[in-house]
């Protein structure tokens, strides 16, 4: 079952994964970050360094977060708001480690995750290794890989392990959200994450696609390494956008749609794919979600700005 941050028992010495650093971007989740760090410190091996990038620009919030973190954790002042890509870039450029594990702040890690990731032997063209993400408190797979249609734009997370991955092993995936360890050389080859085109959504899809363009195998999933994702669960259509609005307002909803359009305008392989994806599939999807939102149980006064933000994102992506 999922790891817990409840225990504060003093820890004895742990082996150090000397070539692995952990970067944790965070935005107004101090308790979640504290739980994640506790799970890292209780592992069978500890990372060489842990860097937390605080994207809240408030000095009071930064001071509160600093008071909750162990002295061994390095806290960086990002202040980028919802720009996750900028926070990740600040994190990996602030460490010299050859392997950087990016962890979203709503995770906890299994005790042997750092050890397993640090012991993985990369092939010459491998860019990244990722643990399997489980839904916190369960043994259900949240994501063990991504498949994406360049025609319909549908993105599906693999929610079960293939037969070959049920024991220790790896499998290629198009990209991986939430938790992945990337080689510094791969990050340098593509100049890191695109904080302008993909500030939050589709940031992983974009960087892994660019890595393929320069000759890397983008990402492998390591089946026996696990993280537990607290917000990982299936969403009814429309619910994802309501949740995005409640977390980050209209900007986050708009960016979610704009990023989808931008990604397929850049990377759909043919003119036909780009036309179907951007002129047919995504507008139809926005219509479907808008209709679902109108049937949502929440008052329509709260639903209307969510739907408007989606259409604003569609126009923004078309202009980029």
Q: Summarize the biggest pleated sheet.
A: 10 strands, mixed
**N- and C-termini, Cα separation:** 43 Å
Which word captures the global form?
globular
Kindly provide the radius of gyration, computed on alpha-carbon positions and rounded to a whole number of angstroms: 19 Å
| Residue-averaged pLDDT | 90
In helices, the fraction of residues equals 40-55%
- The proportion of strand residues reads 15-25%
Query: Would you identify the regions where 5 or more consecutive residues have pLDDT less than 50?
Result: none
Order of helical and strand elements: EHEHEHEEHEEEEEEHHEHHH
Describe the structure in your own words.
The chain is an alpha/beta fold. The protein is 40% helix and 22% strand. The chain is built from 9 helices and 12 strands. It has helices at 30-41, 59-68, 84-93, 113-119, 184-189, 203-213, 239-267, 271-294, 300-319, and strands at 16-26, 46-54, 74-77, 99-103, 107-109, 128-135, 141-143, 146-148, 155-157, 170-173, 179-183, 219-229. Strands 1, 2, 3, 4, 5, 6, 7, 10, 11 and 12 form a 10-stranded mixed beta sheet that branches. Helix 7 (239-267) runs antiparallel to helix 8 (271-294), helix 7 runs parallel beside helix 9 and helix 8 packs antiparallel against helix 9. The longest helix is centred in the last third of the chain and has 29 residues, at 239-267. The model has no long low-confidence stretch (mean pLDDT 90).
């Amino acid at each position: 079952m999922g790891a817990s941050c409840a225990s504060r028992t003093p820890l004895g010495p742990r082996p150090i994964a000397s070539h692995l650093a952990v970067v944790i971007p965070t935005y107004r989740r101090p308790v979640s970050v504290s739980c994640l760090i506790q799970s890292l410190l209780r592992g069978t091996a500890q990372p060489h360094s842990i860097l937390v990038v605080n994207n809240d620009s408030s000095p009071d919030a930064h001071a509160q977060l600093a008071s909750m973190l162990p002295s061994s954790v390095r806290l960086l002042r990002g202040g980028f708001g919802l720009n996750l890509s900028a926070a990740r870039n600040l994190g990996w450029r602030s460490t010299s480690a050859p392997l950087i594990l990016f962890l979203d702040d709503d995770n906890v890690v299994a005790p042997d995750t750092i050890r397993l990731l640090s012991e993985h032997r990369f092939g010459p063209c491998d860019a990244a290794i990722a643990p399997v993400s489980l839904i916190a408190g369960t043994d259900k797979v949240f994501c063990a890989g991504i498949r994406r249609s360049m025609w319909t734009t549908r993105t599906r997370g693999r929610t079960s392990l293939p037969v070959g991955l049920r024991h220790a092993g790896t499998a290629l995936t198009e990209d991986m959200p939430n938790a992945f360890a990337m080689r510094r050389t791969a990050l340098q080859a593509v100049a890191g994450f695109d904080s302008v085109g993909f500030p939050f959504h589709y940031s992983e899809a974009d960087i892994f696609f660019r890595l393929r363009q320069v000759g890397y195998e983008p990402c492998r999933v390591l089946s026996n390494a696990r993280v537990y994702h607290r917000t990982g669960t299936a969403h009814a259509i429309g619910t994802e956008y309501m949740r995005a609005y409640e977390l980050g307002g209209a900007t986050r909803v708009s960016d979610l749609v704009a990023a989808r359009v931008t990604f397929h305008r850049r990377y759909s392989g043919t003119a036909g794919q780009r036309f179907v994806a951007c002129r047919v599939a995504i507008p139809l999807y926005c219509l479907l979600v808008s209709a679902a939102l109108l049937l949502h149980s929440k008052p329509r006064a709260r639903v209307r700005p969510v739907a408007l933000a989606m259409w604003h994102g569609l126009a923004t992506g078309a202009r980029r």
